[in-house]
Design goal:
about 70 residues, alpha+beta, 3-stranded antiparallel β-sheet, 2 helices, elongated
Length: about 70
């Protein structure tokens, strides 16, 4: 299967026979195609979503109530 032209639905494949420089350019293009926020997140890092709680600081939203923690200012 030749995926040289790329796809916005599937990331480029990297294996031992792949030219890393070409793969890197294709991966960057793939991530840009997902949206500029994706590339910004890769460059700047990801932070979990938070919401303000009056008087307590910020609540970090987890996958459920049991994983929620409160960070005090």
């Amino acid at each position: 299967m030749n995926r040289a032209c790329g796809s916005v639905a599937r990331p480029p494949f990297l294996d031992e026979n792949t030219n890393y420089g070409a793969w890197k350019a294709k991966m960057k293009s793939f991530l840009w195609a997902q949206g500029t926020k994706v590339w910004t997140t890769i460059e700047n890092g990801w932070e979990p979503p938070t919401k303000e709680i009056k008087g307590c600081g910020k609540e970090v939203e987890g996958e459920g109530q049991s994983t929620t923690k409160v960070v005090i200012k």
